[in-house]
Amino acid sequence: MIDGGHLRVQARQNKLAYDPTLIEKVAHACIEQAQENLLRILYYDCAPYVGEARLPVSGKMHQFTGSGDWLRALGRKDLFAIRQGVLKFRGFKPKRIPISPTALSDDDFVPDFEQKGVDMRIGLDIATYSDERLTDRIVLITGDTDCIPAMKHGRKSGIQMILVSLPGQRLAPELFEHADFKRTIVWPG
Hints:
Elements: E1 2-3, H1 4-13, H2 20-29, E2 41-45, E3 51-54, E4 61-64, H3 69-75, E5 80-84, E6 86-94, E7 109-116, H4 118-131, E8 137-140, H5 148-156, E9 160-165, H6 173-177, E10 181-184
Parallel strand pairs: 1-2, 2-5, 8-9, 9-10
Antiparallel strand pairs: 3-4, 6-7
Helix pairs in contact: 2-3, 4-5
């Protein structure tokens, strides 16, 4: 199970191109081939935001465009299933705080987006796979502590929870408290 927003941030911090090929390679790097059989790769993310918003300083209308083609391409890969949330536009926020005392322009702000429904889908899938005993282990790529209740549920149901750590990443200690194993992988070449 891959939290796409989390993986995207980690990839960009490591200056990697975030695309279906990288996502597929990371997913396969998480599996210990000699001991585990891959059932399915569940990828959780949102399509890019498409819509209009008024810029914060000039008041001009700005069109956000994006394409979910890359998500569809990922979903066509072997063993991938896409679980889509919704990306909400929450306005603009300053690039730097404190805000400069000089005159501001639209370039001093960045759009603020929020994923909705992704954590819930991860939690529901962990519960479903656990309750129906569809697998013995769940390998999870996330940095979100909102997943802890679902991880606890999985473990109570007898499922081993494996938390993946990526190079240079610092995960919240409480995530490790609710995982059976920590698996560190390297970025695939």
